[in-house]
Amino acid sequence: MLAYADAHADTFYEAALKGHDPARDDSPLHINLPRMQAAGQTLQICSIFTPSRYSKSEATAFAHSIIDCLDRHVAAQPHALAKASRAADVAAHRPRISLIPWLEGASPLAGRLELLDEFYARGVRGIGLTHNHRNEVADGCGCKEPRQGLSEFGHQLVERMEAISVAVDCAHLPEPAFSQVMALAKRPPCISHTGCRALVNITRNADDAMLKAIAQRGGFVGIDFYPGHLIEDAFAPGARAAKADDVAAHVMHAVNLCGEEHVGFGSDFDGFEDTCTDLRHLGDLRNLEAALRVRGLKNHTLERIFSRNLLSYLGRVLD
After folding, report:
1. What's the CA gap between 314 and 270, in Å, rounded?
2. pLDDT in tens, 208-248
3. Handedness of CA 10, 267, 203, 318 (dihedral sign)
4. How far is CA 171 from CA 255, 267, 269, 288, in A?
5. How far apart are CA 281 and CA 273, in angstroms?
6. d(Cα 160, Cα 163) in Å, to the nearest integer?
7. Residue 319 pLDDT more than 90?
8. HSE-CB for 7 with a 13 A CA cutoff
């Protein structure tokens, strides 16, 4: 069995909001503990997502509530789950599954650098600088053009994140902010969850120049499983259904551009409802493996994509 590591999922956001128990096999979550164990999962990076309706102190409190939920479940399942702070913890924790909190959007920082240290103390080791909307850092990918790049706080935040070994995540980050981050970055950045814009031409997906920029700096690109990022007009009337093979197509495109050592998965599971027909939840991961094997990938490359690349990346940034 291939070990599995995932750079992005919203499972604990869903658990906190809706009361779902990720330890139960009958929960409606895409990811739950029995599926993680059956999939050979070693690491889950856990999105601490803050909706645009929250800002300033409300955003800060909301993010803390998601981390509280994660901590409660770790405390309830100490034999199976453990919070990790660095890549070396993942091997040390096995056979337990390591969890790393990761802000999706910097809104919880409320434009205050001291709050980065507060979230660091709670285990946050990466920050997606924006989501779709504008925050104190920059315009997100859903903002209208012309988009604003990094604010003064955004520049300060990237510099402070790198100083304390917090990963800079460029998912949802459009131009010109993306290029500004690349100019600032001294540690390897990442795009935790994305599709490839060459295959589906939407601003949310990373274009070829972005993918190459991440790889050239020793970073990581996680391909996600959301149909809207995988096929054109995924939800238009009469559109064909997305499949695991579409994920495989985006993986292959990224590998061809970045090299097989920089690509993995950031599923975005539990962050959307309409799934690929044969990748409905973590229990269907074998279908993605089969789709990649059909495209000619061998065990060594699959081991990299399924887990080793993400762990190597975290080792370069966090350890």
Report:
1. 23
2. 999 999 999 999 999 999 999 999 999 999 999 999 999 99
3. positive
4. 18, 13, 15, 22
5. 10
6. 5
7. no
8. 36
Compute the radius of gyration of the chain from its Cα atoms.
Answer: 18
In angstroms, rounded to a whole number, what is the distance separating the alpha carbons of residues 66 and 129?
Answer: 18
Given this model, what pLDDT does residue 107 score? Answer: 98
Tokens of 10: 């919203």
Rounded to an integer, the average pLDDT of 150-174 is: 98
Q: What is the mean pLDDT of residues 290-313?
A: 98
Judge residue 277's burial from the number of C-beta atoms within 10 Å of its C-beta, 0-12 exposed, 13-18 middle, 19 or more buried: middle
Are 228 and 203 in contact, with CB atoms under 8 Å apart? no
Could you tell me which residues come within 8 angstroms of residue 273 by beta carbon, excluding any fewer than 6 positions away?
none
* Nearest alpha carbon to residue 188 among 208, 158, 209: 158
Could you tell me the pLDDT band of residue 271, with boundaries at 50, 70 and 90?
A: very high
The residue count for the chain:
319
How many angstroms separate the CA atoms of 28 and 34, rounded?
Answer: 13
> Nearest-CA neighbor of 148 among 136, 157, 158, 139?
139
Find where tokens 């996600």 sit.
Answer: 224
Separation CA 135–CA 133 (nearest Å): 7
DSSP state of 82: E
Predicted confidence (pLDDT) at residue 102 exceeds the cutoff of 90: yes
Backbone angles phi, psi at 310, to 5 degrees: -65, -45
Residue 193 confidence (pLDDT) above 90: yes
Amino acid at position 18, single letter? K
Main-chain phi, psi angles of 20, to 5 degrees: -70, 145
Give the Cβ contact number of residue 284 at 10 Å.
18
CA-closest candidate to residue 172, choices 164, 181, 163:
181
pLDDT digits (tens, 9 = 90+) for 23-32: 999 999 999 9
Question: Closest Cα to residue 7, out of 282, 249, 227, 264?
Answer: 264
Q: Are 303 and 16 in contact (CB under 8 A)?
A: no
